[in-house]
Write a structure and sequence with these properties.
Layout lengths: L14 E4 L16 H10 L4 E3 L7 H9 L2 H6 L6 E6 L1 E3 L2 E2 L3 H15 L4 E6 L7 H18 L2 E8 L2 H15 L5 E5 L8 H12 L7 E2 L25 H16 L4 H16 L20 H4 L7 E4 L3 H16 L4 H7 L5 H24 L31
Parallel strand pairs: 1-2, 1-10, 2-3, 3-6, 6-7, 7-8, 8-9, 9-10
Antiparallel strand pairs: 4-5
Helix pairs in contact: 1-2, 5-6, 6-7, 8-13, 9-11, 9-13, 11-12, 11-13
Length: 400
């Protein structure tokens, strides 16, 4: 692999802090969020990777500002954490995958994030452009990786599993080099597990090294109070019938003394950690146990499925990390992990019991969802037209 020596799966942390929430899609005023506090708290808790995009409004700039502070400079080197961003998506209906725009976007991201290099760059939402355009963007990103060394790894992201697989297969066939990563969102959740059943076999066959699972709450769909309404209004693509089915699932959780989002986040993290392991990573798991990058090959630790989570408050981050570490405590070596991480040996047993409870709840929720389990919404939506082109792309149909 020109320009890169170590496989991404040997380095990337299996828990990534997503910063799409640093945007008006999820919040009325992203500048009112304590983004610096969230980033600093994440680093203090052991999180070592941050995902962003130029499409996420001020996210890159807010993340860059949070990392360019005395707290970070005094306690962490740039080598200690990963920065992941994207190219190609400019607006809700505007895309540009040309080599010139990709190069411009990378230079802008480097400036906004206040860094000399980017660890991983995705082509953003590939279903909205043609396969030829995806190839053009991937080739330019690899040129930058090889010649300018400001990128380390290259991948693609998007929603429809079939499109992601087709693009990964195309890149391997046309370039002879597989993608380092393919990130899917909202495709391994309580409501939809197609990333595991349909995505992993094809992506692995296409040589993809890591497959991160983003939006474990389905972009906020799997919440007691439903989709969050931010400064951009109700933008979520889920239809009313799917939302109604999720509402019934939420009522079921309430009746059993649970919250839908609590069950959903634990289910997605815990099951993907296992089922996504074959396309996962061995990086720092943020378990509370000191971790050294240079000992990876010596330790030979098992890969864990990679998850991307997003929060808008420090309290949400703390709760997410409590769940994440509890899941780690429930693994085969979890008793030792719990004790070394400053927790109790009994937390291993508690985690195993909670795992069984969540699995039982998940089975009941699937029955409630009925035909809306493994249902996907269309992306792009019917009639979508890229503002930088004239013809409409064919829509990926909804799948039941």
């Amino acid at each position: 692999m020109p320009g890169t020596v170590t496989p991404l799966s040997s380095l990337l942390p299996p828990l990534i802090c997503g910063t799409a929430t640093f945007n008006s899609q999820y919040n009325l005023d992203p500048f009112a969020i304590d983004t610096t506090g969230i980033v600093h708290r994440a680093l203090s808790l052991g999180i070592r990777a941050f995902d962003t995009s130029p499409y996420y409004g001020p996210s890159e700039e807010l993340l860059g500002k949070a990392l360019d502070t005395p707290f970070v400079h005094d306690n962490f080197s740039r080598h200690d954490y990963f920065l992941l961003t994207k190219v190609g998506r400019i607006g809700s209906s505007e895309f540009d995958y040309s080599a010139s725009w990709v190069y411009h976007s990378i230079q802008r991201s480097l400036e906004r994030l206040r860094t000399d290099y980017l660890d991983l760059v995705y082509c953003h939402d590939v279903e909205f452009v043609s396969p030829t355009e995806v190839l053009t963007a991937v080739r330019e990103l690899r040129r930058i990786r090889n010649e300018e060394r400001t990128i380390k790894y290259v991948g693609i992201s998007g929603y429809p599993i079939a499109v992601l697989c087709e693009c990964a297969e195309l890149v391997l066939r046309e370039t002879g080099e597989p993608l380092d990563a393919v990130m899917s969102y909202a495709n391994f959740t309580l409501q939809n597990t197609l990333l595991s059943s349909e995505g992993v076999p094809r992506l692995k066959a296409a040589g993809v090294d890591v497959v991160p699972n983003a939006s474990p709450l389905g972009m906020g769909l799997l919440r007691r109070h439903g989709v969050a309404i931010g400064g951009q209004g109700d933008w979520h693509p889920a239809g009313k019938d799917l939302r109604a089915a999720v509402g019934e699932a939420s009522d079921f959780c309430d009746a059993n003394g649970e919250k839908l989002e609590v069950v959903a986040i634990r289910y997605a993290f815990e099951v993907w950690m296992r089922e996504g392991g074959e396309v996962g990573s061995r990086g720092d798991p943020a378990s509370g146990v000191p971790w050294k990058r240079e000992t990876i090959e010596e330790v030979g630790g098992r890969k864990l499925g990679v998850s991307v989570m997003g929060v808008s408050k420090i309290e949400e981050l703390d709760e997410t990390m409590r769940v994440w570490r509890s899941i780690l405590d429930g693994r085969e070596d979890g008793q030792q992990t719990a004790m070394e991480g400053g927790r109790q040996a009994s937390d291993h047993t508690w985690s195993l019991n909670r795992q069984r409870e969540v699995q039982e709840l998940a089975a009941s929720i699937r029955n409630i969802l009925g035909k809306y389990f493994d249902y996907t919404w269309a992306s792009p939506q019917p009639g979508f037209v890229d503002q930088r082109r004239t013809p409409a792309l064919p829509s990926t149909p909804a799948v039941e």
